[in-house]
Amino acid sequence: MRIGLVGVGRIGAFHAATLKGLPAVDQVVVADADPARAEVVAKELGVSSAPDVTALLGSGLDGFVIAAATSAHADLIAAGVAAGVPTFCEKPVALDLAETERVLELVEASTVPVHIGFQRRFDAGYQAARAAVETGELGYVHHIRTNTNDAFPPHHEYIPNSGGFFRDCTVHDFDIIRYVTGREVVSVYATGANRGEAFFGEYGDVDSAAALLTLDDNTFVTASGTRYNGAGHDVRMELHGSLGSIAVGLDEHTALRSAEPGVTFPGGQPHMTFMDRFQPAYVAELTAFTEVVAGTRAVPCTVRDAFAAFRIADACELSRHENRVVVL
Ligand SMILES: NC(=O)c1ccc[n+]([C@@H]2O[C@H](COP(=O)([O-])OP(=O)(O)OC[C@H]3O[C@@H](n4cnc5c(N)ncnc54)[C@H](O)[C@@H]3O)[C@@H](O)[C@H]2O)c1
Q: What protein family does this chain belong to (predicted)?
């Protein structure tokens, strides 16, 4: 199949390389708002490039992958749907809730499949945690802790087009909390601060944040994250239940050091980027998208799922700004 990809920045170039290696994919064509960048990446990866997204969508694609900046997602999803091409789009769907809802309506009124990129759903650890909740082996889950700690911040132009910390970063935790538990968030209290470079604050954003969520079965969740985690890229989830506890992302590569004398775990090199932490999950996610394109699989993460996670992120932004509990 022939897959077109738009947006060849950090994740787009990485996704283009992954797509090229998939057995179901014969051709990859890339485009970017900066056509010179698309040409450079195409040359590096040995794929072709198109001068712009109109040419890309008009080139006989079987599938369309959107990895451009978040501010461009809504229009690009609309273009993919209008062209009738099965579409994959990186999270989140848009910068705000109203536009996310418009995309939801557009996609649900069409028959074109649209798959949103929450790759943690394809990670073996999160899948095992979901199975542990489903089988009841943890008993009832009373507390969950999640963290999304980036080792270093993205380039500063990224921030004004990202939607802010909760919509850009913690939204991954919100999606996976729903996926693992099958429960909905009913209220949030969130806070955040800018303690690193000043540009986060200049864009009205924070670089470290935390939220306390209450789920509809009275499970309490603390979700924290930062753009500055010196120890490495650290993404984990702990679930504590009446019969047992389980941790996702706790292995030899966890960016954590024990303070206990004589304890050497974890002994491996910490992950430094989301690309190395989630490499197998991204392969599984894009493989799933090729199955959606082939018509052999239903969309595994829908715009409705993305809308639900985004609503939680949006509530956290409101909570942070108004310093109060927000009920969903
Ligand atoms: N799932 C994940 O783990 C994950 C990780 C990183 C980023 N992302 C998401 O991927 C998207 C891209 O992030 P990134 O870190 O690669 O950003 P980036 O800034 O490195 O790259 C964005 C690219 O999009 C291009 N672009 C912007 N507007 C465009 C438009 N209208 N048409 C075509 N190209 C356009 C830019 O020129 C740039 O090359 C964001 O939405 C982000 O939320 C997801």
A: Belongs to the Gfo/Idh/MocA family.
Cβ contacts of 276 within 8 Å, gap of 6 or more: 233
274 lines ligand 1 (CB under 6 A): yes
- To the nearest whole number, what is the mean pLDDT of the chain? 98
Q: Out of 5, 10, 205, give the residue to mutate to test ligand 1, the one with the largest number of ligand atoms within 8 Å of its CB.
A: 10
Determine the Cα–Cα distance for residues 324 and 328; give it in Å rounded to an integer.
13
Superfamily for the 2-119+282-301 domain: NAD(P)-binding Rossmann-like Domain (3.40.50.720)
**Does CATH number 3.30.360.10 belong to domain 121-276+309-327?**
yes
Identical fold for domains 2-119+282-301 and 121-276+309-327, yes or no, is no
Q: Does residue 90 have its Cβ closer than 6 Å to ligand 1?
A: yes
The dihedrals phi and psi of 179, each to the nearest 5 degrees, come to -65, -45
The answer to whether 316 and 190 have CB atoms below 8 angstroms apart is yes
Measured in Å, residue 15 CA sits from the centre of ligand 1 at 11
211 C-alpha to ligand 1 centroid (Å): 25
Name the strand (E) or helix (H) holding 190.
strand 185-193
Centre of ligand 1 to C-alpha 67, Å, is 5
- Residue 139 CA from chain centroid, whole number: 29
6 lines ligand 1 (CB under 6 A): yes
Determine the distance separating the centroid of ligand 1 and the alpha carbon of 7, expressed in angstroms.
Answer: 6
Predicted local distance difference test score (pLDDT) of residue 149: 98
CA of 282 to the centre of ligand 1 (A): 15
pLDDT in tens, 84-135: 999 999 999 999 999 999 999 999 999 999 999 999 999 999 999 999 999 9
- Break the chain into its structural domains and give their ranges: 2-119+282-301, 121-276+309-327
Q: DSSP 3-state assignment of 27? A: strand
> What pLDDT, on the 0 to 100 scale, is given for residue 318?
98
pLDDT at 88: 99
At 112 the three-state DSSP class reads coil
pLDDT given for residue 131 in this prediction: 98
